[in-house]
User: What shape does this take?
Amino acid sequence: MNRDSQPRRRVRLKDRHREQTADAILSAAEEIFASDGLHAARMEAIAARAGIAVGSLYNHFESRRDLLGALVRARREALLARADEALAAPRAFADGLRLLLGALFEHWALHGRFLTALIGSEYAGAVSGPRGRAILDELHDRAARLARRGLEEGALDPADADLHAAVLLGMVRGVVRQIPLESGAPAAAERVARIFLHGAGRRP
Assistant: This one.
């Protein structure tokens, strides 16, 4: 065995353990922030939920605000990754619409309690990305990309091209704030896709 391989392996294992611990902390923090509130959440409670000592928690995150910022960034990146995956493969517009809606609703089903606590707080600005772009702007870009596919296929009316992405995103925002999605994200995606494509009126 190469004499240098064992130190490198130990470094990799140490890095992997640190990454796994950080993920456990973020999951625990999400639960505590959602249940106790962004201001009332205590680092001691987060450490206990993660199963680590408080000192270990501070080795990873210097403060509660630092931890909250890391959590918001992680959930933001996960949401955009879900959306990008839904839009990645070329497919019919209606199928892409259902996949994008399903991705957004599934993310909310998993993280909605924390996101609800975040919305409207002074920490909501942390949802902006590294270039200062708000998450809603990022999602609008993706909805607009999908809408262009719908226009190319003739599935959407070009007379309303300037509204398609905004209307779709508005429907998503309304649904996630009002409809429980924990056990019905795919069904909700199907219903919203149907209304977006065909309208809410009764069909003859």
Observations:
- The chain has two domains: 1-62, 72-204.
- The two ends are 75 Å apart (CA to CA).
- DSSP finds eight helices and no strands in the chain.
